[in-house]
Amino acid sequence: MIYKYLYSIFAILIFTILMYEGIKLIFFQNIYVKSGRFLIAKINLGLQKKLYDKDINHELHDAGLKMSFNKWYKSYQKSRYLIFFIFFIYLIIKLILNKTNFNLLIIGILLYVLSTPRLKIGKHWTPFGHILKQIDLEVKNKQDTELASIIIQIQNIAISQKDEPTTLSYILTRIIRFSKYTKNGFIKMVSYIDQNNVNEAKLVFIEEIDTTLGRDLAYVLIELDNISPSEVVKQLKVLEERVRSETLTNKNKKEEFYSNILYIIPTALCFLILMNFLKIILTLVMNLVPLQ
């Protein structure tokens, strides 16, 4: 009986808070606004501020994740609030129908806390942090794979333009058409290069493609206008060889990981069989002891 009362108190309290915030946001904070469009814009801006946490940029930077992931944060927050709002309405309906379930409310509160959009709590990654870290790893792997093919394309362009050296901006403009995961980095780089802001071009490229290969390629590209095409090809070949070496190393690590799994599974099964056999022997021994 006490669970039913506690459940009702929680539901009424949350409903009252939501009603208060909604009425205050819609009617009182913007009562001076004449234009309906401006009112909607103000409400939308207020909601965006509530959904967005300024500290997320610092967390992403400290964790070594892509800064552009703050858009994932906003989408996650919107989806999270929508799901729990629907869940809360469902609980209210159950309360009205006298079908209260206190355990369901506790589960909802726990899920709300566990789904908090923080990357880390102390030194430990949260579920949200693990998801972003995995997405970050996948994106960076795809960027490195694309950069490996782009390095070969730049080499071919440099060789074909050996007698008529061209500019970095021209080369990158040709590369952009064939890029997907690295396109934003190259577009921003070209934009700053056209403004003669070389250092900013390098930094913005590294910010968009924050991998070891991306950083090394940024330093090579920035010097492309200052060195001969043959030197460009030479430096790019060094990067290409390193990419091949790292690809081979990663492939060997994956094969070793899979082979370890294949080895662990039969080993674990053998261990379980031996434990079961030992259990049978101990059972027989225990049954024979009273007979003696």
What does this protein look like?
The chain has 292 residues and is mainly alpha-helical. It folds into 2 domains: 2-117, no CATH class; 143-246, no CATH class. Helix content is 78%, strand content 1%. It is built from 11 helices and 2 strands. The chain has helices spanning 2-28, 36-51, 55-63, 70-96, 102-114, 127-160, 168-176, 183-194, 198-208, 212-222, 229-288, and strands at residues 120-121, 124-125. Strands 1-2 form a two-stranded antiparallel ribbon. The longest helix has 60 residues, at 229-288. The two termini are 57 Å apart. Mean pLDDT is 73; it is low at 30-40 and 42-47.
Q: What is the structure about, briefly put?
A:
The chain has 292 residues and is mainly alpha-helical. 78% of the residues lie in helices and 1% in strands. The chain has two domains: 2-117, no CATH class; 143-246, no CATH class.
Number of helices: 11
Number of strands: 2
Estimated helix fraction? over 70%
Widest sheet: strand order?
1-2
State the order of secondary-structure elements, H for helix, E for strand.
HHHHHEEHHHHHH
What structural class results from the helix and strand content?
A: mainly alpha
What is the percentage of strand-forming residues? Answer: under 5%
Provide the gyration radius in Å: 30 Å
Shape: flat
- The domain tally reads 2
Poorly predicted ranges? 30-40, 42-47
How confident is the prediction overall: mean pLDDT? Answer: 73
Biggest sheet layout: 2 strands, antiparallel
Amino- and carboxy-terminal Cα gap: 57 Å
